[in-house]
Amino acid sequence: MTGLGSALRTLAVAAAAGLLAATGVVAAPAPPASAAPEPKAPREFVALSAVDRTILQEMRYTTAHNFVGEPIDGYRQPLCILTRPTAEALHRAQVGLLARGYTLKVYDCYRPQRAVDHFVRWAKDLDDERTKGEFYPLVDKSRLFADGYIAEKSGHSRGSTVDLTIVRLPAARTRAYVPGEDLVECYAPREERFPDNSVDMGTGYDCFDTRSHTDDPRIQGVQRDNRQLLKGVLAEQGFVNLPEEWWHFTFKPEPFPNTFFDFPVARRSVAGH
Predict the structure, then answer these.
(1) Do the beta carbons of residue 94 and residue 54 sit within 8 Å?
(2) Three-point CA angle 226, 230, 234, nearest 5°
(3) Mind listing the pLDDT tens digit for each residue in 218-270?
(4) What are the b/e assignments for 169-187, b being 16+ CB within 10 Å?
């Protein structure tokens, strides 16, 4: 009887399908499988503001004021996310700077792999030079990979690298970037280049030029002193500077030295951590 019942049910389903087709009624399609949820950060990651609310955040890649000229893939919110040991080390550096009348300001922290992929696509598009006048005025775009300005992997994606500067207190406001405004070379005198409330480091952030090398001999006086202050304060807390970029520091030892993450920069990525 079980076999007969199954056969009858099959016939009934087939008959119903035929009736629907004959009357022009089409059954609703099955709902699509739900998209895979976006990855979240491991519990070792935190929002910097959860560790230190006094460190300023000017997250450039959520805006159009960067070398690509548009918001970067994966940056959903202007939020600094780092591994917890890195955030705690920045907090210790900040305590010392606050006592001297300064504060740290971060430009970029954890960077998802999809953002790095965005950089790579932009670098390969040699016709897109809308930001050349500010960020790489002396560099031929075809040289960005060979000269080391762009790479297919970034230490930022491991969560313990940060781009940052120093701001004298009380911190002045930095005006908003206006897309399409006239561009000024990132190594121009401070009063001429795009305004930044940081101390004078000799170049702007993300300046693709050898003047951005931390110990470039052309950078002297107050500018050199400011770079050495940033480097020294961070070195005391375990950060290592990338010699080609005065703003780029990696905390050692890294919790994830060989893992490149791709969760988005968003509060939900570290919710509950």
Answers:
(1) yes
(2) 165
(3) 999 999 999 999 999 999 999 999 999 999 999 999 999 999 999 999 999 99
(4) eeeeebeeeeeeeebebbb
Cβ–Cβ under 8 Å, residues 67 and 107: no
Q: Exposure of 217 by Cβ count < 10 A (0-12 exposed, 13-18 middle, 19+ buried)?
A: exposed
Instruction: Give the Cα separation of 110 and 112 in Å (integer).
Output: 7
User: DSSP strand E in the chain: where?
Assistant: 45-47, 56-57, 81-83, 102-108, 161-168, 239-241, 248-251
Q: How many residues does the chain have?
A: 273
pLDDT at 143: 98
Residue 245 annotated in active site: yes
- CA 39 to CA 36: how far, in whole Å? 9
Please report the DSSP string for 155-191 in residue order: GGGGT-EEEEEEEESSPPPPPPP-TTPPP--TTS-TT
Which of 58, 134, 185, 245 is labelled catalytic? Answer: 245
79 — pLDDT class (breaks 50, 70, 90): very high
pLDDT for res 4:
39
CA atoms of 206 and 203, how far apart (whole Å):
9
Average pLDDT over residues 187-202: 97
Residue (of 267, 68, 233) closest to 162 by Cα position: 233
pTM of this structure: 0.87
Spell out the residues 6+ positions from residue 258 whose beta carbon is closer than 8 angstroms to its own: 158
Q: Per residue in 139-152, pLDDT tens?
A: 999 999 999 999 99
Place of tokens 């190594």: 187
pLDDT over 80 at 179, yes or no:
yes
